[in-house]
Amino acid sequence: MNTLPVTTEKVILVGVEISNAVRQQRRAALAAASAASAAAASEESGPSASTLDLPPVFDAVESLDELATLATSAGGTVVEQVIQNRIRPDAATLIGSGKVEELGALAKAFEAETIIFDNELTPTQQRNLERALKVKVIDRTQLILDIFARRARTREGQLQVELAQLSYLLPRLAGRGVEMSRLGGGIGTRGPGETQLETDRRKIQKKLKNIERDLENVRAGRSIQRRQRQSVPLATIALVGYTNAGKSTLFNRLTKAEVLADAKMFATLDPTVRHLMLPTNRKVLLSDTVGFIRNLPTTLVKAFRATLEEVREAQLLLHVVDASSETVAEHHAHVIEVLREIEADGTPQILVMNKADQLQGEEATLSAKSLAARMIGDANVPAVIISARSGEGINSLLELIDARLDLDPVRTVRFRLPVGDGATLNALHEGTRVRSVVYNEDVCEVIADAPQSVQRRLLQFLVCEEA
């Protein structure tokens, strides 16, 4: 059977640097955080945190590089990148008439089919740009929505993406330009089809209500599942972090699962839950969730409320960061910002500094405490250095999870049971971490790190808590 050749869409990326005021403010905040943790960091690592270079802040170039990765994930080929510096945005086109003419010439020269702006465009700006440039124009938000539409596999994920797309496109229905006239699709046109978007607002709003109703049913189902889990001491741990930090690779390493893990942004969209056995033989649930990103669209956060509730309801968060990234401080800050939006910033966290195998120089020799101080300006956060790819540090991570998990707490206790009671001894081996077993005539004494639930179940054999 003949197959059509694979073609990619030629795209031009446009970044706009409005002012460096915000950048300076964030640098000052990061400097203050680094100075505050200087004493704690110097105790272990030697150099003072105040002498370290400040964590980098996203500038227009770095942001555009990230946009290029997103565009590639969406099936585009970046043929040119343009950065416009302005004191304030132009109300009509964002970039000004002169830059629009220059951009039009570039689009013709490179035969570009799509121009993607790193900044969110107003409906008016998008229409004006499409009319002037005669090509499809989308912004960062629409690109991210497009990628989510490609990656959604479950019915729930598809509903959430469609809700986000329709919420974003509703104010842009009137006067849609080049994008609406094309029937060939492409980047930024996935999800609800052209015919649906050309209907009137009343029908769109009716569709939104239907999707929201279906998602409410999903939420109700998840609530029932959570109540069932909460009826037994089974804690939920959620992996969170910036997209492409290595969460799915870590998930596979911990649970022996085979979820998709590659270098593409948002490789994981639909959450996956698996059992995980801790060193104390406590069984917990581990959830792999969608990666966060800078300026994650508000419509997407709201639409994915049903999925993100799993994060909010978790007893512990594993905040995975790419320790080799030059913008790790920014990535960490953006994840914390999203967690605050979904009211999960108060949940206990462990900072998991992944990709240790890619660390170089002095950073490769630092302790977890010192590396955390250097990267995010906080030496007091519970942290561990790992490589999800090689397995380095995984045992330390599991021990730290065991120590930080409050649900069904573990204590070192002594059990005394009859020598012939093999069933109870087997239950202790399966449900606790046994430290020693001593036989004394007709009595068997077992010292074990036992969860509270096991202590209650075997209360008749419990002697005392070990010092």
Explain what you see.
- The structure is a single chain.
- Helices cover 43% and strands 19% of the residues.
- The chain is α/β, with parallel strands linked by helices and 467 residues long.
- Helix 6 (140-151) runs antiparallel to helix 7 (155-169), helix 7 (155-169) runs antiparallel to helix 10 (201-230) and helix 10 (201-230) packs parallel to helix 13 (305-312).
- It starts with 8 loop residues before the first strand and ends with a strand.
- Residues 1-6, 36-56 and 177-183 have low confidence and may be disordered.
Strand order of the biggest β-sheet: 6-7-5-8-9-10
Tally of helical segments: 18
Mean pLDDT: 80
* Total beta-strand segments: 14
What is the SS-derived class?
Answer: alpha/beta
The amount of beta strand, in percent, is: 15-25%
* Major beta sheet summary: 6 strands, mixed
